[in-house]
Amino acid sequence: MEGVDQEGEQFRAAYTGVQPHKAVSFRDVVREFMRGLLEMSVEFGRGCRDVVRQSLVTEDSFLVRNFSGDSYIGRKIKVPCDFILRRLRLFNEYLVPEDKDPLRAWSVILVVFVLALAVLSVSIEHDTAIPVAKNVYIHPPSADRIMLPDGRYMAYREQGVPANKARFSMIIPHSFLSSRLAGIPGLKASLLEEFGVCLLTYDLPGFGESDPHPKRNLESSASDMLFLANALGVGDKFWVVGYSSGSLHAWAALKYIPHRLAGAAMFAPMVNPYDSLMNRREKYGIWEKWTRKRKFMYFLARRFPRSLSYFYKQSFLSGKHGQIDQWLALTLGRRDRALIEDPVYEEFWQRDVEESIRQGNAEPFVEEAVLQVSNWGFSLADLKLQKKQRGKGIINLIKFLLSGSEEEYTGFLGPIHIWQGMDDQVVPPTMTDFVHRVLPGAAVHKLPYEGHFTYFYFCDECHRQIFTTLFGTPQGPLNNIIEVEHTSFDDMEVQEEVPQGDFKTG
Predict the structure, then answer these.
(1) What's phi and psi for 70, nearest 5 deg?
(2) Other Cβ atoms within 10 Å of 465 Cβ, number
(3) H-state helical runs in 374-488
(4) What is the CB neighbour count within 10 angstroms for residue 44?
(5) Exposure b/e, 417-455, CB count within 10 A at least 16 = b
(6) How far apart are CA 269 and CA 426, in angstroms?
(7) Under DSSP, is residue 172 helix (H, G, I), strand (E, B) or coil?
(8) Mapped to the 3 state alphabet, what secondary structure does 66-117 carry?
(9) CA-to-CA distance for 174 and 136, rounded, in angstroms?
(10) Extended beta strands in 180-306, E state
(11) What residues does 241 pair with on adjacent strands?
């Protein structure tokens, strides 16, 4: 019996490759399984080859009848094939073993060559399509802040001349996935000084270093803007600047605090894409420019806003930097594409994003997305400058005639300037056409060949054109020097009789 057992162990060792009296490991089992699988694959391939030969290579098959050497097509290609084979015979002695059929050897060489090209092309695409992602760095807090009436803190940034010396003041609410650091990207301090402009930017609630405000709406947004202007000593009126999705806060300022606005400068202004005032052609012209993912995100913001948090955490809240067009599902034109690939823009964009997502909370971004597609509480038509309608009836007419009052107007009385790139696919020109139809008094500046970013970002000439359009000839900051005139003794006595509390200097 012992001899039989020894013979069995030797047989198993020869078959499995495992030494006797040694336990079979999981690796050995996998090896044997793969060996059996490969043998079955080889047999299966041979079976398929036999089936093909018996079915397609018989004398009465379609291939033999139409492509054999005696067929019409065979006779046509025989001459060039023979020529090529004669040329290839020169390499047979170097590339083809003596015991192999040259035709079969060259077939193998051709297949290997094609596979090598395919692998090389895939590796190149793989290397270029997935760049190394850079980690997001959260910088130490550095913003100036003010306390709002409800106890929240608002972070802001002041550029240009001081507010008390500014000839003009501008306040800019930032767009989605941005911060107070954006402002007008690339705007030079010398240009602000030349035109005497004080430029204020601030973080929206929950963005950057501003405290969140879960119950915010566009009316509260306008109130925050007004409190910032008052707290920093901005003069009687200021200009509001709206860029892209930040324009909805500029529209709100035109509605709720028009008495403090000198005018509005809008750049590719966004409106509610579901606005009921849009006609069918305008809706089609806007929505056809957007990607399916962007349309889907608008749908989620309108119907299932809570689900947006998941997508945001997979993109700009993931802790890794990325491309703006991929994160926000944007379609970009040629010039916009070239701009976002510029290292200067990339450095600015990454720093702005890092500040925007500082708090790591998705809720403020969800709130901002919902604000854009929900009911604003007002319509763009409310901003249209038009005569106020008097009450009907004889009594109202008599009151109007007896009062001698002038015609009253409703809407925004100041100037509205809109700059629109005609190659903008983020905010299509059709959207500005809609705004101009509703607000015919707005001055629209159409920019041929410009995209969504190219006119507003890092363009010194463009910035000077914008300031010249808004403010005219540059005059520098105000000269707040009180001139003391020589007065007579009698005038001095009159001034001494004025109570001290009523004395003002200007």
Answers:
(1) -90, -10
(2) 15
(3) 394-403, 429-438, 460-471
(4) 10
(5) bbbbbebbbbbbbbbbbbbbebbeebebeebeebbbbbb
(6) 10
(7) strand
(8) HHCCCCHHHHHHHHHHHHHHHHHHHHHHHHCCCCCCHHHHHHHHHHHHHHHH
(9) 20
(10) 197-202, 238-243, 261-267
(11) 265
Overall pTM > 0.85: no
In the beta sheet, which residues pair with residue 387? 409
Average pLDDT, the chain: 83
Which DSSP helix (H) or strand (E) runs through 255? helix 247-256
CA distance 460 to 465: 9
**What is the per-residue pLDDT across 223-265, written as a single tens digit (0 to 9) for each?**
999 999 999 999 889 999 999 999 999 999 999 999 999 999 9
CA–CA distance, 435 with 439 (Å, rounded to integer): 6
**Residue 330, beta-bridge partner list:** none
Q: For 9, what's the count of Cα atoms within 13 Å in the CB-facing half-sphere?
A: 12
DSSP structural state of residue 232: T
One-letter amino acid identity for 63? L
| HSE toward the beta carbon, residue 467, CA cutoff 13 A | 28
The total of other beta-carbon atoms located within 10 Å of residue 399's CB is 13
C-alpha neighbours within 13 Å on the C-beta side of residue 123: 6
CA atoms within 13 A on the CB side of 336: 20
271 close to 254: Cβ distance less than 8 angstroms: no
Inter-residue contact 214 to 150 (CB < 8 Å):
no
Which of 197, 151, 204 has its CA nearest to residue 176?
Answer: 204
Give the integer Cα–Cα distance in Å for 128 and 341: 14
DSSP code string of 117-166: HHHHHHHHHHHHHSPPPPBP-PPPP--EEEE-TTS-EEEEEEEES-GGG-
Tell which residue, 234, 274, 264, 246, has the closest CA to residue 470: 264
Q: Are 318 and 390 in contact (CB under 8 A)?
A: no
- Please report which confidence band the pLDDT of residue 56 belongs to, taking 50, 70 and 90 as the band edges: low
